[in-house]
C-alpha cells in the first residue's frame, strides 16, 4: 500500500450510517440521495461565509488562498470575514479527525457553533501539495461536489479484497461498510449533474495500482483543479 493513503468520509445528513472508530462515533451515509455534483445540495446563493472555529493564522491563510481556486471558475465567492455573522462553512483543524466536509447545503443542518469541515492534514509536517489538494478537495464537497471515483460512469475495476484489507489498517481503520460507501457505491445519474468521468479530477481519491485488477492508479500528485473540474463547476454555478 502506498504510504499514508488517507481519504475523507462523505458527510450526509440523511440516512446516517454510524460506526465507532477509536472510541469516537463517526457518521456517514448508507444510501445518500446521490466532477459531478448532487443537484439537491447546490447553494442557491453565491456568497458563502466561511468561519474558523480554531486554527493558527498560518492555517487560516493557506485555506483562504487555496479555497479560492474554485471561485476563479464558479460564480461563487467565499467571505472569510465572518466574525460578526454566522458562517455557512465552519472549519476546524483537529488532527485526530482526518479531513472531511459536509456536502453543499447540508452544512446548514448543523448548529452555527459546530464544524461543517475538518482539515486535519493542514499541519507543518505535510507537503504544500498535500495541503493544497486537501483544501481544494474539501471545498469541492462544501459546494456540492461528490467523489469522482463514484461517478455513474467511472467503471473502475476494483480489487475489492485488497481495498478492504488496506483500509482496515491505520490511519483509516474502516470497516467494510464504510469502504463500500466511500469507494464502491456509485451515485444515481438521475439525481446528479455530471460530465464524463474525469480521472484527473481533484475530487478523486488516491487509488494505488494494487487496488485495481488492471493495475491502473488514479488520483496521485494532484496540483489543483483539472480542466474538466474548471469547466464543470462553471456550468454548475454560471455567471
Structural account:
There is one protein chain. The protein is an alpha/beta fold and 239 residues long. It has a domain at 43-143: Collagenase (Catalytic Domain), CATH 3.40.390. It is 22% helix and 15% strand. The chain has five helices and nine strands. The protein has helices spanning 57-67, 128-142, 160-167, 176-184, 227-236; strands at 16-21, 24-29, 36-38, 47-52, 77-79, 89-92, 99-101, 117-119, 192-194. The strands form three sheets. It has a five-stranded mixed sheet with strand order 5-4-6-8-7, with helices on one face. α1 crosses α2 (128-142). The longest helix has 15 residues, at 128-142. It is globular. The relative contact order is 0.21. Mean pLDDT is 82; it is low at 12-34.
> What is the overall pLDDT average?
82
3D shape = globular
Secondary-structure-derived class: alpha/beta
Strand content: 15-25%
Walk across the major sheet and give the strand order. 5-4-6-8-7
In helices, the fraction of residues equals 10-25%
Number of strands: 9
| Number of alpha- plus pi-helical segments | 5
Rg result:
17 Å
Give the N-terminus to C-terminus distance in angstroms. 43 Å
The biggest beta sheet is recorded as: 5 strands, mixed
Low-confidence regions? 12-34
CATH class membership of one domain: Alpha Beta
CATH A-level architecture of one domain = 3-Layer(aba) Sandwich
Quick gist of this model?
With about 240 residues, the protein is α/β, with parallel strands linked by helices. It is about 20% helix and about 15% strand. The longest helix has 15 residues, at about 130-140.
